[in-house]
Amino acid sequence: MATSSLQSKTPSTSQSTLVWRTIQSIVWLIGLAIVFNLFFYPTLGIHLFWNILIPIAPLLLVLATGVWRNVCPMASTALFPRYIGLSKKIKLTTAQSGKLYLTSVILLFLIVPLRHLVFNTNGLATGILILSLALFAIVMGLLFEWKSGWCSGLCPVHPVEKLYGQNNRLSLPNIHCDKCYRCVTPCPDSTPAINPVSSKKTAYHRIAGFLMTAAFPGFIWGWFQVPDYEGSITFSQIVIAYEFPLLGVLVASGLFLVLKRFLTAKKLIAIFSALAVSCYYWYRLPALIGFGIFPNDGMLIDLSHSIPKWVVSVIIITTSLFFFWWIVFRKQKQISWGSRPAYAKISRTKTSLP
Known about the structure:
Elements: H1 2-40, H2 42-63, H3 65-71, H4 73-83, H5 94-119, H6 123-143, H7 150-154, H8 158-164, E1 172-173, H9 203-223, H10 235-259, H11 265-288, H12 309-329, E2 338-339
Parallel strand pairs: 1-2
């Protein structure tokens, strides 16, 4: 009877895998097409990447982080060496994992302000940035076991996944991992209600977790106070690009430390997660349709003469209320982004970096 039950599940499992592999391939090809456009049709490429893909990503991370973890084209690129048997499968130590986590947060805080200086208006530079990150992803995949090097390590998007995906709704099949190799602990894909401070094993983990929970909302606010620059970049523009986000980091961190005395850690992290994503869309949605602080910056389509401004206000207020309900007030189901596959037998001969 058990054998019959297992056999009945096998076709549907294979079919599900085939569907996910197909989606992965389509998304990867879309990513390739975006890079192509960034190099050869930069205006279109900038709209596709910065004004369509990136604005959708935070919403997807909040609602269904596991979907993004399954189809992210950079993840597929990073894991390709492992799929074809070229990875050295090095197991990261706890300290190394913490260093990668902190490095990913620092990369996020360094790269994002550069959007105002270079990437938002220069398709070639954005294309080079993406290819450079892809090269890093491949190297990490060549060296380290499964997702530990890139997807759950050096990727600058991963800390945002942890911040936004802590009240996940769907637990999906982990389509990349057929078995669990314990490549990183706690595993972000299969740990219920994971957040940026879920791991406090080292000082690196704790610093990175604090920056992503306490500082990130302020960083987002500060980023939106800076205009895009074109042409030659001056030193004063560089200072401004980082000055406002840094100011936001300091104010938000101070507020976090004050509120820490009155709220539980779980509630406070949820509030700051909702603050971060709400702040992003509070500024980003109006800019997309021509109501931004700085005219034409990040605009996809100009609707400023087609709809009244109060409509935009209703949209961003409704969006913010939704995120606070979803992340803070909605009952947490304690589910993970994806299901954990069966544990693999770990060879004792595997090495780690010194």
